[in-house]
Amino acid sequence: MGMTGGCLCGQVRYELTVDPTVCLNCHCKNCQRQAGSSFSFIVGVPEGTVNVTGSLKTYDDKGDTGGRVQRQFCPDCGSPLFSLVENAPGMVWIKAGTLDDTSSLTPAMNIYTKSKQHWLELGAIPAFEAGPGGV
């Protein structure tokens, strides 16, 4: 416990009061666009277990199923930090690259692989074309 993280400029900092409940790679096109990379490495924690200092800006997005996705980022440097997903109520999804130390994290699955980059090999990590259970 006690994982900490923040944005690139340091204006937003956060601390987790619990260990992540899930760690995964999301290959959806919107995560690719937001991350500026081939996928987003993310961890999930229950709402209410992230203490944030600093201001966040929110972009309202829609997931593949049309559900609302609130993407929260630093208004100064633009670092993507958190997502609140209507189809996963009660969870906060954290861009793992914003954690100060990711050495203890290993993704348990790949989701939205229907959008993954064709050259990316996923190895032995379980993969789902959409979210688990088709979410």
Architecture blueprint of SSEs:
Blueprint: E1 4-6, E2 13-16, E3 22-26, H1 29-35, E4 40-46, E5 50-53, E6 57-62, E7 68-73, E8 80-85, E9 91-95, E10 109-111
Parallel strand pairs: 3-10
Antiparallel strand pairs: 1-2, 2-5, 3-4, 4-9, 6-7, 7-8, 8-9
Keywords:
135 residues; Metal Binding Protein, Guanine Nucleotide Exchange Factor, Chain A; seven-stranded mixed β-sheet; 1 helix; 10 strands
How would you describe what is shown here?
- The protein is mainly beta.
- The chain has a single domain (4-114), classed as Metal Binding Protein, Guanine Nucleotide Exchange Factor, Chain A (Beta Complex).
- It has one helix and ten strands; from the N terminus they run βββαβββββββ.
- The strands form two sheets. It has a seven-stranded mixed sheet with strand order 6-7-8-9-4-3-10. Strands 1-2-5 form a three-stranded antiparallel sheet, with no helix packed on it.
- The longest helix has 7 residues, at 29-35.
For the record, what CATH class applies?
A: Mainly Beta
Which consecutive residue ranges, at least 5 long each, have pLDDT under 50? none
How does CATH name the architecture? Beta Complex
Question: Might you state the CATH topology name?
Answer: Metal Binding Protein, Guanine Nucleotide Exchange Factor, Chain A
Helix content: under 10%
Task: Determine the structural class based on helices, strands and strand pairing.
Answer: mainly beta
**Main beta-sheet annotation:** 7 strands, mixed
Outline type: globular
Spatial strand arrangement across the major sheet = 6-7-8-9-4-3-10
Average pLDDT score: 93
Residues in β-strands, percent:
35-45%
Let me know the number of strands: 10
Tally of DSSP helical segments: 1
Gyration radius from CA atoms, angstroms: 14 Å
